[in-house]
Amino acid sequence: MESIINIFRTSLTVFGQQPLMWKLLATVGAIWTGNILANIGTFTWLHFLRRSSLARYKSKSSWALITGSSDGIGKAFAHELCHRGFNVVLHGRNEKKLENVRAEILNEHPAQEVRILLLDVAESAGDHARLDEAVDQLEDIDLKVLINNVGGVAKRLWIPLQDYSDDDARLFLDMNCRFQTELTRRLLPRFINGPSLIMNIGSFVSELPAPYISVFGGAKAFGKAWSRSLHFEMLAEGHDVEVLQVQVGMVSTPNEPRPESLFVPNALRMAQSSLDKVGCGRSVVFGYWPHQLHCSLLIDLPGLLRDRLLMRIVKGLKEQEERDLKS
Ligand SMILES: NC(=O)c1ccc[n+]([C@@H]2O[C@H](COP(=O)([O-])OP(=O)(O)OC[C@H]3O[C@@H](n4cnc5c(N)ncnc54)[C@H](OP(=O)(O)O)[C@@H]3O)[C@@H](O)[C@H]2O)c1
């Protein structure tokens, strides 16, 4: 102990004898290193050490509603939530697909209950009577979890603004902003009665503005700001409602069958690691650690270099999409 104190004292003396310039540089270096170490510590804690507190929202008969759960990440959330002891409401627009998912889940988890909520976002966003009617169907269940997952894009992702039709633009905004706002607003009075969770699924694109995704990126940025604001509103009002925005990078799904890799997980992996973030105390989190790494590497590049790199990446992806659509 004595020797550590001596080393510390000597370092301070040596530091005190340095010219002012060196002192300033050393201080900046120490703050910078401290910041990096703190970020690495938080990253490790968040993704590898802490345990999910999803069980807080579970009782014998708790239900979770997952929007857009006939396929992709939403379907994976439904499977995983049943696996973790919740009954689930599957939402979607295709009754046959939803019935198949229901049968699949009940086959794996016969002890759980699975319901279907049929509601086409394209037709129901803004249709107040229809939304009220849908929410009324859930009156008799103990709804504790809402996953606002429905969203995404049309056949093309990279679209110049002038190429959008009015209908395309409206659908993007309905799917990624309006529906979740209208649905959550209706369900909120039920959530504020007890511990409940609202998880909103966002995207990488709201972190890194890029060409040809002005509508989609803008819609996802709305989702992120909306979710954060609601998170703080629940705190300000003293309601025990956790509102968590989960940012997602590339995922391999049946609609986007990309090759799986460390940076491109399958939908189940994405859903599992997102649910593991419940209770982390943040308003926004990356659900899957390689997505956070990938995004941070790009964000932390010097501005000019990052923007040039992003333009090149997007150009390649847009050309690839055009080739895929032609073939
Ligand atoms: N996949 C990715 O790489 C990725 C990346 C970043 C963020 N995300 C986000 O993750 C979420 C899920 O994406 P995903 O890739 O899993 O999507 P997906 O595979 O395309 O599935 C979307 C789900 O939404 C349903 N849906 C689509 N249009 C609908 C409508 N008009 N009315 C009602 N339901 C409708 C689909 O039903 P049908 O089965 O009838 O089509 C399906 O159940 C989205 O918010 C997306 O933005 C995904």
From TrEMBL:
UniProt-listed PANTHER family: RH59310P (PTHR43899:SF13)
Transmembrane portions of the chain: 20-48
Entry similarity comment: Belongs to the short-chain dehydrogenases/reductases (SDR) family.
Keyword Repeat found: no
InterPro entries per the UniProt record, alphabetical: NAD(P)-bd_dom_sf, SDR_fam, VLCFA-Steroid_DH
Protein name as annotated: Uncharacterized protein
Species of the source: Zasmidium cellare
Record keywords: Membrane, Oxidoreductase, Transmembrane, Transmembrane helix
The organism's place on the tree of life at top rank: Eukaryota
